[in-house]
Amino acid sequence: MASSYIQIGYGQVALATLFILINMGLSFGLRLGLEQSLGLAAFRMVGQLLLVGYILQWVFTLSNPVLVILLALSMTAIAGVSSVNRTRRRFASIYWNNFISLLSSSFLVTGIVVSGILRVQPWYEPQYLIPLLGMVLGNALTGTSLSLDRFMEDLTSRRDEIETLLALGASRWEAAHQPIREALRIGMIPTINSMMVMGLVSLPGMMTGQILAGANPTDAIRYQIVIIFAQAAGVAIATMGVVILAFLVLFNRDHQLADLLRKLD
Q: DSSP states of the chain as a string?
């Protein structure tokens, strides 16, 4: 039976693995300590999903680029506002910073997946672009929300410690490194936890939907792996972006912690 979707080969799945390897490289370079967790979670997720794919035997049976982009931008704006609304402390440019982080991460990762891995023609095909963007955005939203909240709470609760480090000659990066690291770790936890139990505890909606619709289970699994890796990359880039932007706002070039945070009731 002819397939109505783009099939993913193991070579393309291997290509998507670069997302995880890049994340691990960034973690190693920034000394975040997430390399082992990311690697183990990715390995377990792949094994579990492949196993489930061979077991399950199910059957799977707006083309205007301007409108598609407008819809994508609207989704990103809503995600940015939703993410900020979950944080308890804010500063003046937090909505803009969050939007930029989500926009850059989700559009970059979705673009790579649609054009570089799936090779969708045309690239703006909404059947692929919108669902993929939605999945990347949804996870990035959670990551940025958790990271922002943790980062700003840490800056508040550890302000004396941070200002002491700055007074002793530490750079703003050295003084804020621990809160940044903790914020990024918190932001990545849901993604890592999800990968750790996928196939054993949870069955991804996209994979299940494809199988129920008639897709070959192994094809659905390969799609899901690419999506999960893309989601992990989106979360990592978005959380790093939003935390680094917050860091640049809250610490000035004179290596001082600005008093810009306000707590909401």
A: ---SS----HHHHHHHHHHHHHHHHHHHHTT-S-HHHHHHHHHHHHHHHHHHHHH----B----HHHHHHHHHHHHHHHHHHHHHT-SEE-TTHHHHHHHHHHHHHHHHHHIIIIIIS--SSTT-HHHHHHHHHHHHHHHHHHHHHHHHHHHHHHHHTHHHHHHHHHTT--HHHHHHHHHHHHHHHHHHHHHHHHHHBTTTB--HHHHHHHHTB--HHHHHHHHHHHHHHHHHHHHHHHHHHHHHHHHHHB-TTS-B----EE--
The model's pLDDT over 100-113, given as tens digits with 9 standing for 90+, comes to: 999 999 999 999 99
Global pTM value: 0.76
pLDDT for 245 = 94
Stretches where the chain sits below pLDDT 50 are 1, 57-61
